[in-house]
Design goal:
It is a single chain. The protein is an alpha+beta fold. Helix content is about 25%, strand content about 45%. It has two helices and seven strands; from the N terminus they run H-H-E-E-E-E-E-E-E. A four-stranded antiparallel sheet has the order 3-2-5-6, with no helix packed on it. Strands 4-1-7 form a three-stranded mixed sheet, with no helix packed on it. Strand 2 and strand 3 form a beta hairpin. The mean pLDDT is about 80.
């Protein structure tokens, strides 16, 4: 993304320097730069523990989805917790027309599935069935 931003910024500078370029090109370039700058890199860092024993749970399958208004297919990451119950990932989320919500699903056999909404850095407690 950084190289695209540099190219776009260079295009904007050249556009402003060239007086023969039409106004529509300048407007398009400014809008593109504004929308590009609204992307955000979001860190998701959770630790999953057993609610009763307070011990970390390994191999919990985690799905992280980003979106708005019930449509959580804009960005997606998944994976498993490590031996310490830790899961970390990063994802690009859009903020051009309002930042995306983060919807997270935790599942492991023997435990009740759990979902969280907009909790990206926390300790998650799962209940054994």
């Amino acid at each position: 993304m950084l190289t695209f931003e540099v190219v776009l910024l260079n295009f904007i500078i050249v556009t402003f320097l060239d007086m023969k370029t039409n106004v529509l090109s300048m407007v398009f370039a400014l809008i593109a730069l504004a929308l590009m700058s609204c992307e955000a890199n979001k860190l998701i860092s959770v630790r999953v523990i057993d609610k009763t024993t307070r011990q970390p749970i390994d191999s919990v399958y985690i799905e992280v989805k980003a979106g708005m208004n019930g449509d959580y297919h804009k960005s997606y990451r998944d994976g498993f917790t490590n031996a310490n119950g830790k899961f970390e990932t990063q994802m690009m989320i859009g903020c051009s027309f309002g930042c995306y919500d983060i919807y997270t699903v935790y599942s492991k056999k023997g435990y009740t599935d759990k979902t969280d909404f907009n909790k990206t850095e926390c300790v998650v407690e799962m209940i054994r069935q």
